[in-house]
Design goal:
five-stranded parallel β-sheet; 9 helices; Rossmann fold; 208 residues; alpha/beta
Length: 208
């Protein structure tokens, strides 16, 4: 069984995906880390994030075992990932890696922004997780504060909206719910309620 979880930044999709993977005993891939890792390579080399040739070379050199998540989290890396993720050739370079992960015999849970539409269009279960921008900005601000980062809510909200616009307007694999995805709005849900709702969606889809 392949479970595809898509949605905008700070919607809760990553936490839901991890919890679903644990619940069903499946491997999980946060595909956003691929774009963050690509951006990290460019930043470490002092190269431009919007240079297609260098970004593609960085993406092709990635290995799933090389990720240092501590260096890939935070507001700076989220914004940087959005920039490289808007480059069509970068998305193409990372396509096979994601599909190979999903093709494991037992199945997998993948979360990102184009899983149900591009990476795994035949996934048995597709969930599009969303929440209003203000709620997502509050969540992201709390997350950053827990990491010890300096937080300004207005700036976080502006960044959320900018990323939404960039991700939705990009020419390659824009952020959009797959036609057969079930939408899950987490604006008024805590994480436990959101996970329960996601499990109910999976059970209904798997049963059908």
């Amino acid at each position: 069984m392949i479970i595809a979880i898509d949605g905008p930044a700070a919607s809760g999709k990553g936490t839901i995906a991890r919890r679903l993977a644990a619940h069903y005993g499946l491997s999980h891939l946060d595909t956003g880390l691929l774009y963050r890792a690509t951006a990290r390579v460019l930043l470490d080399r002092g190269e431009r994030l919007d240079d297609p040739d260098r970004a593609v070379a960085a993406a092709r050199g990635l290995a799933l075992t090389d990720f240092d998540e501590a260096r890939l989290r935070g507001a700076e890396m989220g914004e940087a990932a959005s920039v490289v993720g808007a480059i069509p050739d970068v998305r193409a370079a990372l396509l096979a890696m994601q599909r190979n992960f999903a093709a494991r015999p037992e199945g997998a849970v993948l979360d990102g922004r184009d899983i149900g539409t591009v990476i795994c269009p035949a996934a048995e279960v597709k969930i599009f997780v969303t929440a209003d921008p203000e709620t997502r900005a509050q969540r992201r601000a709390l997350e950053l504060a827990k990491r010890g980062e300096k937080v300004d809510y207005a700036s976080v909200l502006a960044d959320i909206r900018k990323r939404d616009e960039r991700d939705s307007a990009r020419s390659s694999a824009p952020l959009v719910a797959a036609g057969d995805a079930v939408k899950l709005d987490t604006s008024a849900l805590d994480i436990e309620s959101a996970v329960r709702a996601a499990i109910e969606i999976v059970e209904k889809r798997a049963g059908s």
